[in-house]
């Protein structure tokens, strides 16, 4: 096993903030192919990698340690969930071709007239999102590593928030779930299996711009345990099928001859 690399952070306070559920990612983590990296977290319920062929993530039992392992060169996303809130990290394995955010930033500047962005060590982005064109341009820009969630300060018109909510609802409806606003936050509700719950959080992230307060009211319903009604009684040994025993057919006896 390679030497451990630790990144210590407060998951609830920083990595899974109260404002959760939209582009961009909360953290960008570099990995090397076939090498491990450990993150020590305060608390976490579960994690899920979007593309396990690029990187794998495993929670080590009883330690709140997250083990990340690069598999092949590329980029993927990691969803972390704790106490009704979630964060999304970008995992970059090796040195994939760099993302050129400059053209997307130029498009966003035209679509959002008051956009103010700085890059480099002190990154920041502020804008008023007043129409669909601006929202969609920001959505494309924030899919890159140009900005993290903590770098944003966005102001939305009510009509654009409703438009974004409608998009989230379109993603949740096939899953049997619903989304609504409560004040400035998004409430996601319904009953779902753990697998569908995870799909819902991915949909919420992919379809949203900026950080929104999330009220996760999804009730997880686990599938029923398989019954043993069709299994043989443990107290009674199972009866093996009878084997067909070959029978040798003998010729009829011959009558003794008189001498």
UniProtKB/TrEMBL annotation:
Residue ranges under compositional bias (Low complexity)? 227-242
Chain spans, region Disordered: 220-259
Composition skew (Pro residues), residue ranges:
249-259
Superkingdom of the source species: Bacteria
| Full protein name | Pilus formation protein N-terminal domain-containing protein
Phylogenetic placement of the source organism? Bacteria, Pseudomonadati, Myxococcota, Myxococcia, Myxococcales
């Amino acid at each position: 096993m390679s030497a451990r690399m630790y990144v210590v952070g407060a998951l609830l306070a920083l990595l899974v903030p109260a404002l959760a559920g939209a582009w961009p990612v909360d953290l960008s983590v570099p990995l090397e192919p076939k090498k491990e990296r450990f993150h020590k977290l305060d608390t976490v319920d579960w994690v899920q990698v979007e593309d396990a062929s690029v990187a794998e993530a495993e929670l080590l039992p009883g330690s709140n340690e997250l083990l990340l392992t690069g598999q092949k060169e590329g980029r993927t996303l990691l969803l972390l969930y704790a106490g009704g809130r979630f964060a999304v990290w970008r995992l970059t394995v090796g040195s994939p071709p760099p993302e050129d955010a400059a053209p997307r930033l130029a498009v966003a500047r035209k679509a959002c007239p008051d956009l103010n962005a700085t890059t480099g060590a002190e990154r920041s982005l502020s804008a008023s999102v007043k129409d669909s064109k601006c929202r969609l341009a920001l959505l494309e820009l924030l899919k890159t590593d140009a900005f993290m969630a903590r770098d944003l300060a966005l102001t939305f018109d009510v009509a654009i928030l409703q438009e974004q909510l409608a998009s989230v609802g379109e993603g949740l409806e096939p899953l049997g779930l619903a989304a609504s606003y409560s004040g400035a936050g998004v409430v996601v509700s319904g009953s779902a299996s753990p697998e569908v719950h995870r799909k819902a959080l991915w949909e919420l992230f992919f379809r949203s711009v900026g950080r929104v307060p999330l009220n996760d009211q999804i009730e997880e319903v686990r599938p029923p345990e398989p019954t043993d009604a069709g299994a043989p009684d443990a107290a009674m040994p199972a009866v093996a099928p009878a084997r067909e025993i070959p029978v040798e057919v003998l010729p009829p006896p011959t009558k003794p001859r008189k001498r």
